Amino acid sequence: MSRTGQLLSTITPPRAAAALVRLAAATAAFLAAMLAQAAVAQGFSLAGQWSHSQQYSNGATAYVIVLTLYPNGQLREYLTTNMGATTYVGQWRFDPQDGRLEMIYDDYSPKQMCGAGVCYPTPPTLRIGAPYSIPIQILGPNQIELADASGPMLYIRQR
Predict the structure, then answer these.
(1) Domain residue limits at 36
(2) Is residue 49 a contact partner of residue 40, using CB atoms and an 8 Å limit?
(3) Which residue(s) pair with 120 in the sheet?
(4) Are residues 81 and 10 in the same domain?
(5) What residues does 76 pair with on adjacent strands?
(6) pTM as predicted
(7) What would the pLDDT profile of 37-94 be if each residue is shown by its tens digit?
(8) Are residues 119 and 71 in the same domain?
(9) By C-alpha distance, which of 124, 128, 82 is closest to 103?
(10) 8 has a pLDDT exceeding 60
């Protein structure tokens, strides 16, 4: 029996499966990094308008995010839910070496909601003035995946 065959015969099936999972994850991470570097080398730019939507299990839309990244480093994020809409403005930066989108929100609107003759304040759902560093995978020229605490979110380029 060859040396490789001897080595493989000593690995138990659960350990082999775990090793294969680790190998697949490492390969996927490597390929994602290579794709991001290749996209940047080919002149790919994140500047543009991107959208993401999330649905409830019954198919109804839970929320829609429209994220516009301007070439000058400014951003506008429009978040709409069944409770209303909020617009955030700020700055963004992408470093292809670390594969992260850096964003800081400077302001938001509306600051209050009014109805039935009563107005009440609407605090932001995102931290104003605090940096966000979000892992990003470039899936193609018109698709990116951003990840947050809730998991990966697929964004589609609108323009």
Answers:
(1) 3-41
(2) no
(3) 113
(4) no
(5) 68, 89
(6) 0.70
(7) 555 445 788 999 999 999 999 988 999 999 999 999 999 999 999 888 999 999 999 9
(8) yes
(9) 128
(10) no
